[in-house]
Each structure stands twice: as structure tokens, then as C-alpha cells.
Amino acid sequence: MGRNHPAREVFAVNESRETLGQMLQRLRIEAGLTQEQLAEKAELPVFSLRNWEYDQRSPRSAALLRLAEALDVQMEELVRAAARRFGRQPVRESSELRAMKRAWDRASAADRDSFRAYIAQGEHSKRDRLRKIKKSKKSGKS
User: Fold this and answer.
1) Per-residue pLDDT of the chain (142 residues; tens, 9 = 90+)
2) 56-79 in b/e burial notation, b at 16+ Cβ within 10 A?
3) Domain range for residue 76?
4) Number of domains the chain is built from
5) How far apart are CA 82 and CA 43, in angstroms?
6) First CA to last CA distance, the chain
7) H-assigned helices in 72-108
8) What number of other Cβ atoms are within 10 A of residue 35's Cβ?
9) What is the DSSP letter of 8?
10) Are residues 65 and 19 in the same domain?
């Protein structure tokens, strides 16, 4: 994926408010590539590229480097776009999660400590049950 010429500049003044997903989609279309073609060229999963273009997820730096090379752009511009949050919809919490947060806020410190101990105990007992199951499978017992 090496290149012999400098990467083209990505941003124009009016494009500086694009999300990373919008920028990736624009650059891909300008390059005349489908999502599948770009994913193959960058050696990345197409479902990841779709998530990034729809601003559902953010790529890691290694993926940004591959995309920059595949699109012949400077990685710095993609990193700047990834750092911006324009156009992203706020995450909506379920009513159950909101109720749990309210209950946690109202709980006393002693109740919170008890809950933490209960969860820790549950994790230990879960690990113990898994160990017993693995041990019984190894010894031939079901």
C-alpha cells in the first residue's frame, strides 16, 4: 500500500464539519469505489467500514492508517475527523437503565457496598461453577 506521491488534501473549508463517516463515504465515492472495494483495498472487514460510514463506531488507528493509504489521503485528516462528534445522535438509555441509575443515586453508601459485595460474590461463584463443569468434563462426568 505504499505510495510514491504525497497524499491529497482532504479538507476544504466547507467540509470541515463532516463526521468521519461522512468523510469516508465522500472520499470513497470520489475514488469511484464501492464499500466492498474499499474494504478489500484497505484489507478491512466491509461490515466495519459500514459501521464507520454510518458513524455507528469509530475505527482504531491501524484501520485509519489502512483507510488513509487506500484512499490516498493523509491520516492526520482522518484522525481529526474521528475526534469530532458532529452529527452523532446521543445514545438513548433504556427506561430500565434510567431506573437503575435513579435507584443507585438514592442508595446509601452501605447499600452500594452490599451490592458490590453481592456482585463480587456472584462472580466468584460463577467462576467456581465453571471450574467444576470443566473439571467434570475432563474426568468424563457430565
Assistant:
1) 444 444 445 444 345 678 889 999 999 999 999 999 999 999 999 999 999 999 888 888 889 999 999 999 988 888 888 776 654 555 566 787 778 778 888 989 998 888 778 777 766 676 677 777 777 777 765 5
2) eebbeeebbbbbbbbbebbbebbe
3) 13-83
4) 2
5) 20
6) 53
7) 75-83, 95-106
8) 16
9) B
10) yes
